[in-house]
Please model this.
Amino acid sequence: MRCINSPAVTEEVIKKSRFLGFIYPCLSEDSTLAYLHDLRNEHSGANHIVFAYRIRTDQGIVCRFYDAGEPSGTAGKPIYQYIEGNDLINVLIVVVRYFGGIKLGAGGLTRAYGNTAKQVIEVADITEFIELASLHFTLDYKDLQHFEYQLAKCSGIIISKDFAGQVNLVVQLPVVQAESLLALFSGYIL
Model:
């Protein structure tokens, strides 16, 4: 799977209709709703605001697409097919259409929305998706330097440190590296 690092935008005019493509990294359905709300306010004069997203959650992968008044299956589904075909995760693609007065027909709409999704994916900064784990550790002060060294070897970072009688840490690292860190510090897990 792959994900995007930052938002991107494209624009294309097809038979006088203006198609704006937006791609956003999203970690939850709430973040997709926030982006959609902002776009609806920014493009209140648009005829259609079509979207599709695919997000990994604790319950599995959540996928949705919406045609926004276009004929069924001609707008949201072609966008989703490009998301799925490029094996993207944690992503929202929105296509905003300003109608130009010339009807495109079902095939033309499908091509227009699909091509806009394709173009915005092509300009996006895409990387491999790395599933992360968050772990809690309680260490003695004398073990902190060795722990930080081993965490760095596992491509992990410290999210928070709490210094009390001992050091309480919340760390984040790739799931595939978690087992090796856990093996080294199994007695320190909360």
